[in-house]
Every structure is written in structure tokens, then in C-alpha cells.
Amino acid sequence: MELKTARLTLLIDPDKKAAFERLCALQDRTASQVVRQLIRDYLVEHGVDDTTQQEAAPAGRAPRAGASRRRRAP
After folding, report:
1. What secondary structure letter does DSSP report for 5?
2. Residue 18: in which H helix or E strand, if any?
């Protein structure tokens, strides 16, 4: 289990949100529990090790050199 938490805010259609919350309740799980599991599964599916905080390259592409650095204004 994670030791620290961060908030993720997203916009969703109200009808989808209500249906999602009903389904979660039927499964005796909170929406947060389900979303956290979806995120963990997505990271694993794309080969991202969340403990290193590195971004995965898109499929079939290698990371660009210096891609994580910000460019300085001239």
C-alpha cells in the first residue's frame, strides 16, 4: 500500500459518475479504490515502474535524449 497520497481531479459525465459509483457500491468498493487499481494496472500494462517516477516511451519509440528537461526561454 502507498504511504503517501496525492489528489487527482478529473471531469466526467454525471451519468457515468453515478453509474460508476453504483457499481462500486455493489462491489463493496469505493470509487477511489477502483481508480487506484485501474491506474496500477495501466502502469503495469505499459511497463512503467512507478517507484522510479520515469515516463514510459510510446510503444515502438525510444525516449528522446533530454526529453524530460525543460527548455529555457531565449
Report:
1. -
2. helix 14-26
Give the DSSP H/E element, type plus range, for residue 8: none
Q: pLDDT (tens digit, 9 = 90+) per residue, 49-61? A: 987 655 555 555 5
* Domains of the chain, residue spans: 14-45
C-alpha cell at 48: 512503467
- Interatomic CA distance for residues 44 and 37, integer angstroms: 11
What residue type is 36 in one-letter code?
Answer: R
Q: Hey, what amino acid is at 50?
A: D
- In the block, residue with C-alpha cell 520515469: 54
**How far apart are the C-alpha atoms of 15 and 29, rounded to whole Å?**
19
pLDDT for 1-48, tens place per residue?
Answer: 668 889 999 999 999 999 999 999 999 999 999 999 999 999 999 999
